Amino acid sequence: MRCKHCFKKAGAPMHADYRYRIIDATPYPVLVINDLNLGNMSVTNGIECVLAQIRNEVPNIGKHRVIYSDSEGIFDEVIIDNSGNFLAFHPVMPGERHTDLGEALKSLGVYF
């Protein structure tokens, strides 16, 4: 999916290529964003735009935990406010680097 909120600057694509899904987990749903790494802006660098696009499709995004896999496949948490606006990145588990979604979700304390 391409972020429609971003624009081209000096002829260069200024959007992230990503896909997302919602996992109905306990105790809260988790929004999982995957960077497709197609050569454009990374999800890491375009996270505000990515979240803005997803907010258009998932109006209650602020009630979800959000994680993403970066262009290297490492999962981190995206801290958002109640409106779904980006606040910060945070390791899923400090000192660990998860490339497995199941392990990342376990580190967050959610089960599906």
TrEMBL record:
Q: What is this protein called?
A: Uncharacterized protein
Domain of life of the source: Bacteria
